[in-house]
Specification:
Elements: H1 14-25, H2 28-40, H3 44-72, H4 76-86, H5 94-126, H6 134-145, H7 148-167, H8 169-178, H9 181-197, H10 201-211, H11 220-234, H12 240-245, H13 254-282, H14 293-304, H15 308-342, H16 346-366, H17 381-408, H18 411-418, H19 422-447
The structure holds phenylalanine.
Phenylalanine is lined by residues 24-25, 27-30, 107, 232-233, 235, 238, 240, 326, 329-330.
Length: 451
């Protein structure tokens, strides 16, 4: 095992790493995005494709990406340079790191806007803005996204929060933020599932929407969305888990921790789905109503239940924190690179990358209102960024990571880092060499209409 350390520091323990990496994985992707894209893509069959992608593609690539990070011990760009040198292959592999850094900035630019919605909802919940009436709740949401000033304000606040955590570095900032939040978020999701159960027949309708597959509902674009979401929700393909892996102490088992993280991430997404769909049906809402779905459903639950005011505040606070622990991992690759290669202090690097991301985010905020007619292939700026990153950049990045780890790195080095029993190692190697790259490739061919 390579006994080097990162110049940026190290996680204090295995548990701290699991928390941080789970923090990166669990976020808006699970609670905001998974339900709405499942709703848009017809339910059960989409969920099965997504789960299949997590198992066959996501987990093997998560192991590969973390392993590469720990071996390279630097920002993704420099890690790839180092690993390419070690493996004696073309240095252009560093551009894979670059693509990741850029994808992180692009994702964060819209992620922060949506996290801004959640922040606004904390305040709305606090001032009793939630009601049991679905039409009132819809108006609350529509008013919010129609207001450029509000969206930019909340987005700005969220970016400031992100950058102030990132400034504090690996232990002080990243680690501390997650310790309490993850368990609390989990508890409140269980409470919401409990509430969903009180909707009786609608609870079962929600479950059957989520879990009984009807494959006629999905086309190649839905398959691409499901696969892209597997990357997005696990935080793969852009160097986030690679840079977190680079802060991982040498003795920790990468395979086991990856399984925990992927498991926790999947459970949170499914719980969110189970909490939300019964409310969708009980209130005559459309499962395919898009990015506003959770903001138009969960407030109804809070409006209805006793103590809903408090739970509403708590839920949205936790959602904001879950988003925060993901957003810090989205920006960490570029911050680490600026420190390594441009000699900036962590604080300066954070401010610089934060300002660039913020500016891009302003255009995303406007794409929900004043710039909503400004479209490209029928997609707003928000839609374009989401499609470009989640459906294209992350799968392409993940594909390249699998190919690099499986075909280009020396197996001796990989094994040194992973220290898996032979049988398990062979399974992983098979998945990462053949199954994961082939699956990504076939999905792309399918979308291009080639088969
Ligand atoms: N996994 C995060 C979520 O589900 C988002 C994310 C994407 C984080 C890519 C890191 C890298 O919300």
């Amino acid at each position: 095992m390579a006994n080097t350390k990162s110049i940026h520091g190290e996680w204090s323990s295995r548990f701290a790493y699991i928390l941080a990496a789970t923090g990166s994985a669990v976020g808006l992707g699970n609670i905001w995005k998974f339900p709405y894209i499942t709703g848009e893509n017809g339910g059960g069959a989409f969920v099965i494709v997504y789960l299949g992608c997590v198992i066959a593609i996501g987990i093997p690539i998560m192991i590969a990406e973390t392993m590469m990070g720990r071996r390279g011990r630097q920002s993704p760009i420099n890690t790839l340079k180092t690993l390419a040198t070690e493996a004696n292959v073309n240095k252009n592999w560093k551009y894979l790191g670059w693509m990741g850094v850029i994808a992180g900035i692009l994702i964060l630019s819209y992620y922060s806007v949506i996290a801004g919605w959640a922040t606004a909802y904390v305040v709305k919940a606090f001032f009793g803005g939630f009601s049991a009436d679905a039409t009132v709740i819809k108006t609350v949401f529509d008013d919010l996204i129609a207001s450029p000033v509000q969206l930019v304000f909340w987005h700005t606040l969220f970016m400031i929060a992100t950058m102030s955590v990132v400034m504090r570095g690996v232990r002080g900032g990243l680690e501390r933020a997650v310790q309490l939040l993850m368990p609390s978020l989990f508890a409140i999701l269980i409470l919401l599932v409990g509430y969903a159960m009180t909707t009786g027949e609608y609870y079962f309708q929600g479950l059957s929407f989520l879990f009984s597959p009807d494959f006629s509902e999905i086309d190649s674009d839905a398959v691409l969305t499901a696969m892209g979401h597997a990357f997005f929700t696990l935080g793969l393909g852009m160097g986030a888990i690679m840079v977190y892996g680079s802060y991982l102490p040498s003795h920790v088992s990468i395979a086991k921790t990856s399984l925990y993280i992927a498991g926790a991430d999947t459970v949170v997404a499914l719980l969110a789905g189970i909490a939300i769909f019964p409310l969708v049906f009980a209130n005559g809402l459309e499962p395919g109503s898009g990015p506003g779905l959770i903001f138009q459903t969960l407030p109804i639950a809070f409006g209805n239940m006793t103590g809903g005011w408090l739970f509403g505040v708590l839920f949205f606070v936790l959602l904001v924190f879950a988003a925060l622990t993901s957003s810090i991992s989205l920006i960490e690759p570029v911050v680490a690179w600026l420190v390594e290669n441009r000699g900036l202090s962590r604080v300066k690097a954070s401010v610089l990358s934060g300002v660039v991301t913020w500016a891009l985010g302003v255009s995303v905020a406007l794409s929900f209102n004043v710039w909503s007619d400004f479209t490209f292939f029928d997609k707003t700026i928000f839609d374009c960024l989401d499609y470009l990153t989640a459906n294209l950049m992350l799968p392409i990045g993940g594909f390249a990571i699998a190919v690099f780890a499986g075909w280009f790195m020396q197996q001796k080095h990989v094994q040194e880092e992973l220290e898996m029993p032979d049988g398990q190692y062979m399974v992983w190697l098979f998945l990462v060499c053949y199954v994961a790259p082939a699956a990504v490739f076939l999905v792309f061919l399918h979308v291009l209409g080639i088969f």
